[in-house]
Each structure stands twice: as structure tokens, then as C-alpha cells.
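Continuing the batch. This is chain 6 of the set; chains 1 through 5 are on the previous pages. Same settings as before, nothing changed between runs. Recording input and output for traceability.
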Amino acid sequence: MRKIFAVLIAVCSLSSCVKEVDVFLPDTPALTNSAFNALFQDIQPAAQTFQVSTNQDTTLSSTQGVHLFIPAGAFTTLSGDPVEGVVEVQLSQAFKKGTWVANRMGTTTLHDLFEHLGAVHISVMRNDVQLKVSPAAKLRFDIPRLAADEQARLFRGISDQEGRTLWLDINEQTEVLPNEVFDAQSQQWITSWQWETSATGWFACGQYLPAGPATETTFCIMLPEGFDETNTATFAVFQQKNSIVELEWSASERQFCSTFIPIGHSVTLLSISAKEQNHFLGYAETTLEGTGIPIPLQPIGTTPAIFAELLDEL
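Output for chain 6:
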């Protein structure tokens, strides 16, 4: 990653040196929400698509080791009418931090920060019409589990109107259990996390990071004039944890800020922007020291392909 992006920006610490690259920015940038949303659609990894018969039980196996059991008659229309025949099941997977960023997902609930163990998204269509899971049916997911993973909680993703995914802890309603599943591709039994659901959308396994007073520290990123919440998203990607925080725009401070980043953690900072039909990237690495000094990022022009390459290396 550094061999590609070292020329962009380097941060030594919050209170010491910041090295930036000067770039030309338009004097009167146009705010284009549609271009910004389209950029994230361009950098998201493609979902796997399966043709599934509703007349029989089916088990799907993904390229990243996800196993999904679908019972016969599992789907209905949005109005509740049973669906028969072949449907299209799309399965997205997020096991790398860059994939979480590409899907505009952080690892936070309303109040807490967690470390992800993997996430999957399922959607079901027939003739380009969205379907849902029958309340009487249960989809069963198995995602890869490392031997060191001792416990996990289940989170459900809810999309907001800005395209972000917000996480709700549903572990009290839907338990995650350690399991073993036979992988047909490798012809081996693999350890997994397993849960059942009667819903589509995003689901993630995770473990809460230890809480403490340091989590109340406010951490901010400062960008040039014209970069704000209408055309920019900013992320802090933890370097030693599978955790990601999307910072919130503060209109009063004209900065992107968060209280979810504990002091002492090293993070990679990213700003992803689209405006005036151009794409911009800001990049830095730092460790939160609790000084309260905002980190300046200087976005430079780039392409969706560069975004995708950077995210793949996180």
C-alpha cells in the first residue's frame, strides 16, 4: 500500500510533522450527490449470483467460504404471497477491511465499537422484483471462523438514506454458535460461525473492543473548503484491529469527527470524494494521542481503480 500512496501524504504524529502534496482544487466546486453515490457503487466488489429453485432445499457455497442453507419455499413477495420456481440470490461478502469501506460500513453501533469477524449480505429477486424471506422459513449461514475466535455476537445492518450501513446488536434475539461445516470445494471440514435468520440484508459477526474513558476523546479530520458530507466520506481504519470508523460531519466545526477511536490506536485515515465529475483521495497514517488537534488531509485527484487497489491492500 505504501509503495503506491506514499506520495500522497504522511503524518508523523498529531503534534509533530504533517507532509502534504499540493494539488489544484476548483474555486467553485459543484456538489454532486449522484456522482458520490455512484463512486461507491463502482468500488464495491461484485456480489455472487446464484439461480435457486424454491421447490427444494439448497446449500450455496461462496468463493470466500460462506455456506448458506435455503429451505424449500423460503421466499415470498413483499406482500406475503408464496413464490415458486427459480429466484436469483445475490450474496455479498465482507471479510477484509477494504471491503467494509467500499460498502460504506463501519464497525460501530450507536454507542459501541466492535471488531468484525466477517459480514455477509443477501438479497433475493425474481424478474427484477425484490423478494423477502417467509416468516416461517429460516436461512442458515455459516461463515469461516478462526481457531482463535472464542466468541462472537451478531449484528444486523440497516441502511440509511445516505447509503451508510448502521449496525444493531441482535445477539439477544439471534444467537451465533460455533460450528463445523463440510466445504465441497476443499473437501474438508472447516470451523464456522453459524446463525439463522428470516431476513435479508447485511449481517456481521463481531466482538466488542474493550471500553474505557479514552473512547470519549473527540478525533477530527480537516479537509479543504468544498469537501463536506455532500461529496465526501472519511474513515479511520484500525491497523491492528478489524475495526473501521466512518467519521461524522460537524457543520459547526467544518470537520469530520468521531468519539469511537481510543487513544493509542494506530489508524489509516481515508477521505473519499466525488465532485465536479472528478474523484479525490486523501490518505494519512497516525496514532491518536489525545491532543485534540485535527489531522489535515489534502485530497488529490484519482480514479475508482486506484480506490479499489488501495482498499484491497488495507
